[in-house]
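Lecture 7 notes: from sequence to structure.
We start with the chain below.
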Amino acid sequence: MKVFLRRLLSLVVGLFLYAVGIVLCMQANIGCAPWDVLHMGLSFKLGMTVGQASIVVGVAVGLIVFLLREKLGLGTLLNMLLIGIFIDLLFSLKVVPLIQGLWLGLIVMLGGLFVIAFGSYFYIGSGFGAGPRDSLMVSVKRRTGWPVGVCRALVEGSALLLGYLLGGQVGIGTVMAVLGIGFCVQIVFGLLRFDPAAVRHETLVGTWAGLRTH
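Predicted structure tokens for the same chain:
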């Protein structure tokens, strides 16, 4: 049980840091990452908060992934809910002001990407499964046989286009997020000597079975 609680704490910390990174990137005010463009656009059109829009999109994508018979984990479910809740909490507390100015915006955006990378370390390291959006990318790859980069571009490009049409903010920060997140993750994982491929992710069934034996 102690191991489970430690992993659960790592998962929640990772999701919180992920939300902090998203808020930093959005408040940089130079354009959002593809999925956040969609969340922002939905929030404008449906009159909801960005966090609520994130939850709606996460649940919708999670349902699609489930129907495509991809395995879901506790991390998948908590990803759908907690990131959106944390985003709204951070916005309500006004932790990060809206940045004015390109250069400061670039610095804040870069900082946000590194925070997301650290969040990914804790989140992936917990071993509770991928988030719904990543699972969708994996599902597309599994069914098409296309390279993972192409599948990611297809999924994120679709989210970006829809978000843009709904009024989400697209700018240099969007390009920075697409090109820079992999670079930031590589640096953070390298510094922490973390190999995500070595993590064995647990499904909901596996988590439940493990809890019952304790």
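Points to note: The two ends are 6 Å apart (CA to CA). Residues 23 and 122 are 18 Å apart (CA to CA).
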